[in-house]
Write a structure and sequence with these properties.
- The structure holds two protein chains of two kinds.
- Chain A is an all-alpha fold.
- Chain A has one domain.
- Chain A contains 14 helices and two strands; from the N terminus they run H-H-H-H-H-H-H-H-H-H-H-H-E-E-H-H.
- In chain A, strands 1-2 form a two-stranded antiparallel sheet.
- Chain A is globular and about 60 Å long.
- Chain B has two domains: 233 residues, no CATH class; 171 residues, no CATH class.
- In chain B, helix 2 packs antiparallel against helix 3, helix 3 runs antiparallel to helix 4 and helix 7 packs across helix 8.
- By secondary structure, chain B is mainly alpha-helical.
- Chain B is globular, with a radius of gyration of 23 Å.
- Chain B has a two-stranded antiparallel ribbon with strand order 1-2. In chain B, strands 3-6 form a two-stranded antiparallel ribbon.
- Chain B starts with a helix and ends with a helix.
- Classes of the chains: A mainly alpha, B mainly alpha.
Chain lengths: 336, 447
């Protein structure tokens, strides 16, 4: 088969997987950051301890995703990041504030601590909102006008709610006692926000983009695609029903299903992500550029593919190992 | 002064990369110093080594975090500020950057968690291995990015087809003529920056009366490392200069302030290079020394800037950055050897600890000055002879670049101030817990 045909598809897939890994992994730690102001002073230390060993590596998936966009689809990288210049700058501001606050909040003088806590929460929220706005702008093909920007802001709020839900699910899984009980409450509230946002984005996306509408609302594609929204709906229902039950059982000292909210949320993210990927493929800049038009030369892609084929499984292997080392409930994090 | 988008894009990129490089410069060598502390502890079972590890790993964590997040900014700005770069040399830059992410970034970021917080969860051996992998990852990262930067300085192993670079030989691309010199120079710079950071902060604690064995160990390690590396760095710098003379003569002429091709060129200690008149004002130099250093002959010929009219870098900036770097290096040599001499005789004098403290971040100054020499010295090219900086610049409106530039500058100012003050604060705080047993000390530290 012609390398110019399949290499861009492979790289679009690798990029999608990197961004998906990023959304799930950094999603939960950004979510914990968004929820931070809701915790008490002592709870905040536990909340941050639950993500401390992981966040560095989680953010590396963003570098890989954007890196793949840069090296495999340089034309699209220029257009997309040029169009998203301001939200990208704001996202970077958020990620920088948050990343440094992680360390500064425990190392700086005590009076400065609340300031760094605020920087951590605000940075997390800003990064989540900006990423949602970037997604929204991207989906409309960077259309001008108030309606398109309104859609982008909606997507921003939706992604922040989804991250908060992921973060709450993570905390339910990784903590116990009073904090775990509160995290269940946070998840219930974030669930409504996420549900509303996913619904709104699902309705608005085909309205905002005739291009995407044409891909969904034709037979038989529509029937084949139906499992995506129906699956999401089922998972939302599962969460809505199981969270109150989980709260009752947790109060009675039984948290055996504490992993369920996080797993169900990851399921929703997966289904939404593949819905979006279907909407976009094979374009990389919607309505303007396909992945084949934007791709680098096969010679460069092949060199990277060889490396990726060897190294990516290794990365997955040691990532799994790192998660196993810190398996179980998060204790106060210490250097000893 | 009016700013065009190219100038703004350069200032923004320069500001980001200048801020970013400060932190990897520390984390590259600090990883190996931590491994050294760990190894000394494993070999001697002397808790003081582990106490030193416990203190410096905090500085490392902070440094690494700032390095990671400022590095994410870089991955976006390659594309937003220099779209022409990937368009022209993407076949070379793309794989090198991808290999850096794949082989280095994930490795260091993942094992950092175990290195920082895993001591009670994994065996001592695995913890040592994690420390090694983090140090190794930072160094591998330096390898790839230096290979790419050096290729931009002295490109080989490619051919141009339809305005795009295509690789003909990857080994020639990676091990291009300036790469071994630049990598050595940078790794030594990282080692020196860390040596003076460790020595300086330990001298600060020492001067405050905090003289536990862990501080003494750190002070000795820093001072001896500095004294060992600085002569090596002078040799490596000299070799790098000869390499520049052969491959980038215009940069070298700017470094030495040589306007007209001459034999027996003097080594200039002071001068104000003047682009308009193509000459130096207020020149003070040592006769024939520049020729002697660069060509190893008294009357060796150095090609002047006049031969590269319109294609040479701005002279004053390169000339003075070079002198700042060399001056800091000379000061480092004197300080390190003096401190070793004093430590061998007993204890460092009060003014020596103050001098070392003042030089805590001297490595940053020399490293930045050195990078300005090599990066400004490459202008007007982005990739020497292949792509000019102006041709690679983006079409993002100047106003947008300016507003985000101001945001970044404000942020970096706050972060840099916070970083330096927190590092010194950590040193003061560490001194207050000395009467407590080590375990109690560490248990109070959450991160």
């Amino acid at each position: 088969m012609n390398a110019e045909l399949w290499l861009p598809v492979v790289f679009a897939g690798l990029m999608a997987i990197s961004l998906l890994a990023y959304v799930i992994l950094d999603g939960y730690d950004l979510g914990v950051g968004i929820l931070l102001p809701l915790g008490s002073e002592a709870e905040r230390d536990t909340m941050i301890a639950s993500i401390g060993p992981f966040w560095d590596a989680n953010e590396t998936w963003l570098v890989l995703g954007v890196g793949l966009l840069l090296v495999a689809f340089p034309l699209a990288h220029g257009i997309i990041l040029g169009e998203l210049y301001l939200p990208v700058a704001l996202m970077l501001l958020g990620l920088i504030l948050r990343g440094v606050a992680f360390d500064f909040r425990v190392k700086a003088r005590d009076p400065h601590r609340p300031w760094w806590n605020a920087a951590f929460a605000a940075g997390s929220l800003l990064a989540a909102l900006s990423q949602g706005v970037m997604l929204g702008r991207y989906l409309t093909g960077f259309a001008p006008g108030a309606a398109a920007w309104g859609f982008a802001l909606l997507a921003g709020a939706g992604l922040a709610a989804a991250y908060a839900l992921l973060g709450a699910g993570w905390l339910i899984m990784k903590t116990r006692g009073a904090l775990q009980a509160r995290a269940i409450g946070w998840a219930r509230r974030a669930l409504y926000g996420t549900g509303l946002a996913v619904l709104a984005v699902s309705i608005a996306t085909p309205l905002a983009s005739a291009h995407i509408a044409a891909k969904w609302f034709v037979l038989p594609d529509f029937l084949l695609l139906l499992p995506l929204p129906l699956g999401s709906l089922a998972l939302f229902a599962l969460l809505a029903l199981s969270l109150p039950r989980l709260a009752r059982r947790q109060a009675a000292g039984n948290d055996s299903l504490c992993w369920l909210p996080f797993a169900a949320t990851v399921g929703i993210v997966l289904l939404s992500f593949w819905g979006l990927a279907y909407s976009v493929f094979p374009d990389i800049v919607i309505g303007r550029l396909t992945i084949w038009q934007a791709a680098s030369s096969p010679e460069a892609l092949r060199v990277i593919l060889w490396g990726a084929a060897v190294v990516l499984p290794t990365i997955v292997g040691y990532t799994v190992y790192a998660y196993r080392v810190f398996w179980g409930k998060a204790e106060g994090l210490s250097y000893s | 002064m009016e700013f065009d988008p190219v100038t703004l894009a350069r200032i923004q990129f320069g500001a980001n990369i200048s801020f970013h490089i400060l932190f990897p410069t520390i984390s590259i060598a600090m990883g190996w110093v931590l491994l050294f502390f760990k190894w000394r502890f494993n070999a001697t079972r002397d808790e003081a080594w582990m106490e030193a590890y416990g203190f410096w790993v905090k500085v490392f964590a902070l440094t690494f975090a700032v390095g990671v997040v400022s590095g994410i900014t870089m991955s976006f700005q390659f594309g937003t500020n220099w779209p022409g770069y990937m368009r022209t040399v993407g076949n070379i830059a793309g794989p090198l950057l991808a290999y850096e992410v794949l082989t280095a970034f994930f490795l260091e970021a993942t094992f950092l968690g175990i290195m920082l917080f895993g001591r009670s969860r994994v065996s001592n051996r695995v913890h040592t291995l994690a420390t090694f992998l983090v140090a190794f990852g930072t160094t591998v990262s330096a390898f790839w990015i230096i290979a790419l930067n050096s290729w931009m300085q002295t490109p080989t192993g490619f051919s141009m087809v339809n305005g795009q670079a295509h690789v003909t030989n990857w080994l020639e691309v990676i091990f291009n003529p300036s790469m071994p010199y630049r990598l050595t120079h940078m790794l030594l710079a990282s080692g020196l920056t860390v040596a003076f950071l460790v020595a300086g902060l330990s001298a600060y604690r020492w001067g405050r009366g905090d003289r536990v064995r862990a501080v003494r160990h750190s002070l000795t390690t820093g001072v001896y490392l500095a004294a060992l590396l600085i002569p090596l760095q002078i040799l490596a710098g000299d070799a790098h200069g000869l390499n520049t003379f052969h491959h980038q003569p215009a940069k070298l002429a700017a470094m030495e302030g040589v306007w007209h091709t001459e034999r027996g060129a003097p080594l200039l200690l002071f001068a104000l290079p003047d682009e308009a008149s193509q000459s130096n004002r207020y020149q003070i130099g040592i006769p024939k020394l520049a020729s002697l250093i660069i060509t190893h002959q008294q009357d060796g010929e150095i090609r002047g800037l006049g031969e590269f009219a319109g294609k040479h870098p701005p002279v004053g900036k390169v000339f003075w950055s070079f002198r700042v770097m060399v001056a800091v290096g000379v000061l480092m040599l004197a300080t390190a050897w003096l401190a070793v001499w004093q430590l061998r005789r007993g204890e460092p004098a009060g003014w020596t600890t103050r001098l070392l403290t003042a030089m805590t971040f001297s490595g940053w100054l020399a490293t930045l000055a050195g990078w300005y020499v090599t990066e400004i010295g490459r202008q007007p090219w982005l990739v020497t002879g292949v792509l000019s900086t102006a041709d690679a610049a983006s079409t993002v409106p100047g106003g947008m670049i300016l507003s985000t530039l101001l945001m970044y500058l404000a942020l970096y100012l706050v972060l840099l101030t916070s970083y330096v003050s927190v590092v010194f604060y950590l040193a003061r705080k560490a001194g207050k817990h000395d009467d407590l047993p080590l375990s109690a000390n560490l248990a109070g530290e959450q991160a």
